[in-house]
Amino acid sequence: HWLAGSLLGQDGRQDDRAAAITELQSALEVPGVSPFVAAVIHVAIGHQTVLGGDLDAARAEFEEALRLAPDYIDAEVWLGDLAWIEGDSAAALAHYRKSDEGLAAYAARYANDTAAAFAPALQARLTLVARKLGDVAGERAALAKADEQLAALRQEVPDWPLVGLAAGTVELVRGDQGAAAAAFDRAVTCDQTLAGTREMVEKLVGAK
C-alpha cells in the first residue's frame, strides 16, 4: 500500500492523488506499523493533501506525524511551509528554526544524508522569511550558509537527486530562475517522486 501510494502520487493528477491517499491510509492500518513508519506515512499523506489544496487536513497529518515521532523534522518543515503559504511569517520562522536546530539529532537517529540535504533547503527558507521581515543581515547570512552547505554537498555527492532539489530551492530563492529550473529538472529526471516537492517549493517562493 505504501509503495502503491507513493507511485500514484508521482503523476500529480487529482484522481491519482486521491488514490494515493487511499493507499497510504490503508498502509497505516497494517498491523504492527511502528510509530516512526506511521509518521512517515502521515507526512506522505499530508504532502499529497497539500498539493490537493486542503491545508487544514494536511496540517492535521503533519501534527500527527510529530506526535508519533517528535524529532522527525520532515513534518516540522511542512508545518513551516504551511504557515509561510498562509502568510504567518512568525510561525514559519519558528518551525524552520526548530527544524534547523533538530538536524543533528535527525541525522543521528534517522538519516544523515537526508539531514545534509535538508540543511541548505532550510537555510533557503530562512532566507525567504528574513527577506519578508526586512532582516537584510539575516537574509544574507542564511543565503551564504545555504551556499556553503550546498557546495559541500555537491563536492561529496554531485549526482544525488536531493542535491539537485536543494540547489533548485536555493537558486529559486536567490532569484535565478534559469539555474533553479535546470537543477530541478535534473533532480526530477533522476527521481520523479521529487516532482511534488518541486511544486511545493515553487509555491513557497511564489507566496513571498
Low-confidence stretches: none
Oligomer: single chain
In angstroms, what separates the terminal alpha carbons? Answer: 36 Å
Integer average pLDDT: 89
- The structural class is mainly alpha
Major beta-sheet overview: none
Radius of gyration: 16 Å
Helix run count: 12
What topology does this entry show?
Layout: H1 2-8, H2 14-28, H3 35-52, H4 55-68, H5 73-85, H6 89-101, H7 103-109, H8 112-133, H9 136-156, H10 161-174, H11 177-190, H12 195-206
Helix pairs in contact: 1-2, 2-3, 3-4, 3-5, 3-12, 4-5, 5-6, 6-8, 7-8, 8-9, 8-10, 9-10, 10-11, 10-12
Quick structural gist:
82% of the residues lie in helices and 0% in strands. It is mainly α and 208 residues long. The mean pLDDT is 89.
How would you describe this structure in keywords?
208 residues; mainly alpha; 82% helix
Can you characterise this structure?
There is one protein chain. The chain is globular, with a radius of gyration of 16 Å. By secondary structure, the protein is mainly α. The protein is built from 12 helices and no strands. Helix 6 (89-101) packs antiparallel against helix 8. It has helices spanning 2-8, 14-28, 35-52, 55-68, 73-85, 89-101, 103-109, 112-133, 136-156, 161-174, 177-190, 195-206.
